[in-house]
């Protein structure tokens, strides 16, 4: 497979190039019509079954219908998506290999890992933004914490669970407690579920997890929401203040986008963007977003790069200002 | 309660019914094929499960596991060749029955015992698992730390290759688990800049290589030892007398299997041996064992199915795989995006109860299918390894590629396959390595999390109730054998010739009567544990209890040797050692001892295809140390 795929890809590229060369001014429309001639591979840098995987799969179906070719999902988990991103970077820029890129890889991981391991989203062609996941800070009811001020007033060292190093969960809490002047120790877990379990079991005082992951436990009264890190109060959590309202500057979201290798022809990127927009309009996909408490962020490539580059700069400044080291401990 | 009933609705979905059937049949098949155990088969089939719903996948894999426990019986009885490590002890009486023309009865009673043991175990699982899950939120990083440590220690202590080899294998497993990105600092460890290693070595290629490819390579060497299979098996339905004789053994086997299956490091292999030892110990006529005692088939076959079922409890309710097969199923669940653990029962009740309830059905299927399919299985035994092995290798490699579409993984499978083959050749059990690999990252991250939670204070492990009890059990596992060894060294030479003489004499009688070396093995254990003031049955039982945290007396390594036919050689030599010890008191015992030794070696040669004498050496050495404390000083 490893040998044949690039070979077919090369053949496809030659066809595209041939069309452009022979048909002269008609070339653009000609090559757009020729694409896609076969299935498009959608790489996902996370494990199957995780939120990124589910989002990618929810989009692959309707987008494939519009393209008239299957969009096949392939999981290449590893290093918060860096493994898949590096594979994508070396793939042919022909529109037959694209990837779901997670925002934290672009704007949080670079703050936690050595420079040579960081991935730069500007090295890719962004097809479209997808959606945004907001974080909520939850506490075990036995702590008695109902607001961030309760934690400050408790005047005791606290332990907080994160969903891992270089994640939004780590960044939100580190920034929040630094600004609130709380003596807090991060305990990293692998993903949202174990971090949530640590709060429910009382092993840690609080944790920041994604809204969709905590929803059930909040409704069951087993976890108390203290503050969300959303830009506006999520509609289903009208009584929980946002961090901004609570007086903190923690503008952190998880976000996802579809990207292609650098150098993918503009008309191919446009064709893909059109296909994914059809996917966004699909009712089943909309229901999926509602159910997972995701906020649509279906902006084009330029807008997305502006958001993400801005976030990276903001976080870099905040981390420097509060003298935080995300990689230590 | 309603979720229990919903679980049945899940089971009765056509796809799940089908895959339950498929799993049970595949399980029986691979049980029949010597060498390729359930862990290997499940590892090889992992890629197939990727396309299934999680619950369907686990239903099938569970079916393979308990189906294999029965399938292994068939070759044990007909060919004197255990198809499955948990059927090793079934060889003794099962094949003796077959030689008396009662192979059908042996297989029939094994099917009934498997059904009863499995079903009772599920009932108990249904009642116990939710209680364990109720405690599950109290399982934080400290508890997981100690539990992981306990699991690795126990599996290394009772593994078949001897303790030093097992601990070495476990250490390699732990080392492999450190490859990849550090969860706490994000630094890369042992990746050599290779992006494929950035997130560590994937569990699937390790399991497929060590268990799958390694086993196939090893078995190509071993298979020619099999005897010719008979063409027909008749009179499968056991007589009323057989049933009456077996009922007690089936009942006790169910309990032993259930309890030992739950323990970390326990499982089908251990429980079948313990159940056999118990029956022999209880019997008024222990000399019948090895001559075709029907209880000698009923007890281990009941126990291994009960254990195969109950070992799902720690996996599904705590996320701790108790043995290598469970480790592979753990991997299968992770691939499906389901993390087994405290939240599983509440968050995926349909999966939990679907899997549990499918086992009721699977056991019925097992009972119904086993008898009509016997003829098919007998014929399959005649398929040549030269045909089977290449096909299996091909399926393994293609499967390894499809999990991650990674050529790198194929390389890993081949590498670990060669390693697995070499390990088996050298008498290393890959089980502790795989389990240590799985539990290694849990151990490391939990330990570091605990230290963060305790602000670096190690006493935190002891002050929390659950981790405190577990830690005490762990310390007992390590310290009791050490303490006993020390005590024995201090004391003047124990006055054991009397007891030893008698035991060795008994061994000599047994061996002299021409029975299999099992007798010698059991006697060897008598001698070994006799020195420690124990006898065979309570030695084994005491070890089990020890695992449960009561006595934690795992030290009686000699008892391992006793129950297992393939260790009979070592046991025979132990008897020899005991005999020469008794020599000081009289020559008779010595003669009896060497007679037993010969019988033991005989049994080894004839006994089992899995046999490897070198494996048993550390056992005999440790027993010898017990007997001759002065030698080791």
TrEMBL record, chain A:
The keyword Nucleotide-binding does not apply. Residues 1-17 form the signal peptide. It comes from the Bacteria. Gene3D superfamilies: Bordetella uptake gene, domain 1 (3.40.190.150), Periplasmic binding protein-like II (3.40.190.10). The keyword Chaperone does not apply. Keywords: Signal. Pfam families: TctC (PF03401). InterPro entries: BUG, Bug_dom1. Belongs to the UPF0065 (bug) family. PANTHER family: BLR1237 PROTEIN, TRICARBOXYLATE-BINDING PROTEIN. This is Tripartite tricarboxylate transporter substrate binding protein. It comes from Actinoplanes sichuanensis. The lineage of its organism: Bacteria, Bacillati, Actinomycetota, Actinomycetes, Micromonosporales.
TrEMBL record, chain B:
Pfam families: TctA (PF01970). The keyword Membrane applies. Residues 17-435 form the DUF112 domain. Residues 491-633 are annotated as: Disordered. The chain crosses the membrane at residues 17-36, 42-66, 107-132, 144-177, 255-278, 315-338, 358-378, 407-423, 466-487. Residues 611-633 have a biased composition (Basic and acidic residues). The keyword Membrane applies. Residues 505-565, 573-597 have a biased composition (Low complexity). It comes from the Bacteria. This is Tripartite tricarboxylate transporter permease. It comes from Actinoplanes sichuanensis.
């Amino acid at each position: 497979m490893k040998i044949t795929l690039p070979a077919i890809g090369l053949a496809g590229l030659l066809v595209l190039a041939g069309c452009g060369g022979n048909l002269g001014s008609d070339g653009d429309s000609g090559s757009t019509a020729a694409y896609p001639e076969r299935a498009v591979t959608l790489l996902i840098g996370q494990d199957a079954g995780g939120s990124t995987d589910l989002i990618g799969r929810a989009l692959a179906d309707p987008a494939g219908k519009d393209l008239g070719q299957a969009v096949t999902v392939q999981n290449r988990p590893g290093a918060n998506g860096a493994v898949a991103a590096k594979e994508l970077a070396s793939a042919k820029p022909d529109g037959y290999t694209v990837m779901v890129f997670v925002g934290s890889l672009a704007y949080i991981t670079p703050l936690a890992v050595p420079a040579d391991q960081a991935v730069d989203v500007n090295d890719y062609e962004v097809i479209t933004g997808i959606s945004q996941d907001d974080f909520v800070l939850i506490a075990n009811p036995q702590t008695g914490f109902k607001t961030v001020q309760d934690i400050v007033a408790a005047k005791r060292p606290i332990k907080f669970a994160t969903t891992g190093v270089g994640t939004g969960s780590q960044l939100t809490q580190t920034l929040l407690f630094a600004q609130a002047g709380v003596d807090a120790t991060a305990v990293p877990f692998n993903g949202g579920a174990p971090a949530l379990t640590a709060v429910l079991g009382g092993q840690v005082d609080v944790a920041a997890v994604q809204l969709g992951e905590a929803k059930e436990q909040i409704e069951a009264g087993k976890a108390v929401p203290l503050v969300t890190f959303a830009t506006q109060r999520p509609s289903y959590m009208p009584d929980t203040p946002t961090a901004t309202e609570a007086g903190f500057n923690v503008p952190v979201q998880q976000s996802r986008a579809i990207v292609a290798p650098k150098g993918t022809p503009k008309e191919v990127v446009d064709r893909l963007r059109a296909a994914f927009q059809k996917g966004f309009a699909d009712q089943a996909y909309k229901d999926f977003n509602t159910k997972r408490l995701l906020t649509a962020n279906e902006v084009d490539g330029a807008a997305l790069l502006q958001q993400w580059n801005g976030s990276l700069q903001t976080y870099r400044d905040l981390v420097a200002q509060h003298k935080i080291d995300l990689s230590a401990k | 309660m309603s979720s229990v009933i919903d679980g049945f609705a899940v089971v009765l979905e056509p796809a799940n019914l089908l895959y339950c059937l498929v799993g049970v049949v595949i399980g029986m098949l691979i049980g029949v094929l010597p060498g390729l155990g359930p862990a290997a088969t499940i590892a090889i089939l992992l890629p197939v499960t990727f396309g299934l719903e999680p619950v369907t996948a686990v239903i099938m894999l569970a079916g393979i596991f308990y189906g294999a426990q029965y399938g292994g019986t068939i070759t044990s009885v007909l060919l004197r060749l255990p198809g499955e490590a948990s059927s090793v002890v079934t060889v003794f009486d099962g094949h003796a029955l077959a030689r008396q023309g009662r192979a059908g009865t042996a297989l029939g009673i094994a099917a009934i015992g498997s059904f009863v043991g499995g079903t009772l175990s599920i009932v108990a699982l249904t009642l116990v698992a939710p209680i364990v899950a109720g405690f599950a939120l109290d399982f934080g990083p400290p508890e997981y730390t100690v539990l992981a440590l306990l699991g690795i220690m126990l599996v290394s202590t009772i593994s078949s290759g001897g303790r030093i080899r097992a601990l070495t294998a476990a250490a390699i497993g732990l080392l492999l688990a450190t490859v990849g990105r550090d969860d706490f600092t994000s630094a890369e460890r042992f990746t050599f800049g290779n992006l494929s290693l950035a997130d560590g070595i994937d569990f699937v290629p390790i399991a497929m290589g060590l268990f799958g490819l390694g086993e196939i390579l090893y078995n190509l060497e071993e298979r020619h030892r099999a005897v010719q299979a008979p063409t027909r098996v008749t009179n499968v339905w056991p007589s009323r007398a057989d049933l009456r004789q077996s009922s007690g053994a089936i009942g006790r086997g169910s309990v032993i299997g259930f309890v030992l299956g739950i323990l970390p490091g326990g499982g089908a292999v251990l429980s079948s041996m313990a159940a056999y030892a118990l029956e022999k110990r209880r019997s008024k006529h222990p000399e019948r064992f090895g001559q075709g005692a029907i209880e000698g088939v009923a007890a281990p076959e009941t126990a291994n199915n009960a254990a195969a079922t109950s070992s799902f409890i720690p996996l599904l309710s705590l996320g701790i795989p108790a043995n290598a097969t469970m480790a592979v199923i753990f991997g299968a669940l992770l691939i499906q995006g389901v993390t087994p653990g405290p939240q599983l029962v509440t968050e995926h009740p349909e999966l939990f109860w679907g899997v549990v309830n499918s086992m009721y059905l699977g056991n019925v299927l097992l009972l119904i299918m086993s008898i009509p399919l016997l003829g098919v299985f007998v014929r399959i035994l005649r398929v040549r390894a030269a045909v089977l092995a290449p096909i299996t290798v091909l399926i393994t490699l293609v499967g390894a590629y499809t999990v991650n579409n990674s050529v790198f993984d194929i390389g890993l499978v081949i590498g670990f396959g060669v390693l697995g083959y070499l390990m088996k050749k050298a008498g290393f059990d890959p089980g502790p390595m795989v389990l240590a690999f799985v539990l290694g990252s849990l151990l490391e991250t939990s330990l570091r999390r605990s230290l963060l939670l305790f602000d670096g204070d190690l006493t935190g492990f002891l002050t929390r109730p659950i981790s405190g009890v577990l830690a005490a059990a762990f310390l007992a596992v390590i310290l009791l054998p050490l303490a006993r060894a020390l005590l024995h060294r201090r004391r003047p030479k124990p006055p054991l010739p009397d007891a030893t003489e008698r035991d060795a004499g008994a061994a000599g009688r047994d061996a002299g009567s021409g029975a299999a070396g099992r007798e010698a093995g059991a006697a060897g254990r008598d001698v070994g544990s006799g020195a420690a003031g124990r006898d065979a049955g309570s030695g084994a039982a005491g070890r089990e209890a020890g695992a449960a945290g009561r006595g934690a007396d795992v030290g009686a390594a000699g008892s391992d040797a006793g129950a297992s036919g393939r260790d009979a050689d070592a046991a025979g030599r132990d008897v020899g050692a005991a005999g020469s010890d008794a020599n000081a008191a009289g020559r008779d015992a010595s003669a009896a001892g060497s007679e037993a030794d010969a019988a033991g070696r005989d049994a080894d040669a004839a006994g089992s295809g899995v046999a490897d004498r070198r494996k048993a050496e550390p056992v005999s050495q440790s027993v010898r140390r017990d007997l001759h404390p002065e030698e080791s000083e």
